Amino acid sequence: MGVMDIVSTGRAFPVISFVCLSLLSYCALLIYRLFFSPLSKIPGPWITRISAVPEANALKDKRRTEWVGQLFAQYPGTVAVRTGPNSVSFNHPDAVKAIYGHGRGAEGFGKSSWYDAFSTTGESLFSTRSKKRHAMKRRMVAHGFSMQSLYSFEPYMDVTMEKFLSKMDEFASTQQPFDIYFWFELFTMDLMGELAFGQNFGALQGGKPVRYSKLVELSQRFANLSGMLPFGKYNVKILSCVPLPYIQGLYQARLEYLDYARKALEKRFQDNRQQALPGSKPRQDIMQRFIEAQDPETGARMDFPELRAEASSLMVAGASTGSVTMNWMTYYLSKNPSVKTRVIQQLEDMFPDNLNGSTPLPFSKLQHLSLLESTEVECLRMHPPIGYAMPRMTPPSGAVICGLYVPGNVDVGVPAAIIGRNSGVYHDPNTWDPDRWMDEKADLSTMKLSFLGFGYGSRQCIGRNVANQFVMKMMATLLLRYDIQLEDPGLTLGSKEFTIIKPDKNYNVILSPRKH
């Protein structure tokens, strides 16, 4: 039967009618989004009102946070910009409290469907959208991140640091310029392997990155792209079917990454959980705490898929963020010798019998070094590892944020890298100044509210203390042990966004044994 035959029988009319109605509905939706939606009153390029393509392209080009920053610059004085048909980014302290805070109003803001793309073999603390399940998971593992637990993790940090420092001693003996950030990445990868899987990856010993580190980055990029799709929990499956080489490459990396985590965790279960540490103490790493974790209210424990998801999440949260933070601290301290001298003086006063950092520095003392901690916080303010907004969904009834009405079920958030340089919060925000965090005349409460280096509210990074522990130990030891200089004193580092915001170029430092 030909086309004319179909038309002549009248069968084509329902099809044509359906197509016409679909086109009319789509056009009506576009017109609504462009001119009549409450979101149309929020500044932003007209294209972002109807399409998420600009944000997806910015992500692909490794400039997503920069793109959002340009939108705020394009509309000076605004507290919010439209980044997509159903997404808004805010840049004001009140938005942090409204969206991420603990108050009754903030309780209605649940995690958006973007997080579904990060649920791999199960829901992790990071990816679960259910507030009830998150609260249960947090109850189960909270003791694993207590100060007592941190001290039990310290021997693993010390052993891994010793391997790292032996490499640094070699560079110091020859004063050969080298890329210290490269070695920071090897260190954090081995350390998180110890804490999450019970074994290091041999990165420091081999002196080269392991395949796993690249898989982590590519997998996270795939999840970010998936999260931008409008199909919720089906985003990953739909994106995995897109036959573009770039997409398929990211998806295959995700599969390999998950398989690697499965094998490593299976080995962790097979190994003796009571391996002896220095001091003959039973092994108590983070994963062991997760294995033993039990909800005090329900008695529930994590199954293997959940543990696998948590281990994968730990690798991202710990390895990538810790290494880049130590990188920025090294760079800024080298560019600001007066601050570095003051930090070293505090260290010498605290450790008069260990002036060359030859023995491990206990974290129990290091956490009282206010200037070194302010140095870390200031680096995280200017260069948070995750710069873009962690999205939350407005309550079904909508919400008023910073005086702007946002309809229900819209993704809203505050980009850490944007508010971290808000001139209304931080004086001279593009200048690195750790003393701002110790200035009694400053509005420290607003500054701390606007600091999103570790997130904010009940969903902030539970591993914050672990990351702070090894960053402080590493930087304190390096400053006591070596004189650190940039090979190029005039170096100016910028940023480039992968999943993590990293330096935009490689650079070298020169180490030499510090003279007392």
From TrEMBL:
The chain crosses the membrane at residues 12-35. It comes from the Eukaryota. Its cofactor is heme. SUPFAM superfamilies: Cytochrome P450. Pfam families: p450. Keywords: Heme, Iron, Membrane, Metal-binding, Monooxygenase, Oxidoreductase, Transmembrane, Transmembrane helix. InterPro entries: Cyt_P450, Cyt_P450_CS, Cyt_P450_E_grp-I, Cyt_P450_sf, Cytochrome_P450_monoxygenase. Belongs to the cytochrome P450 family. PANTHER family: CYTOCHROME P450, CYTOCHROME P450 12A4, MITOCHONDRIAL-RELATED. This is Cytochrome P450 monooxygenase. It comes from Exophiala sideris.
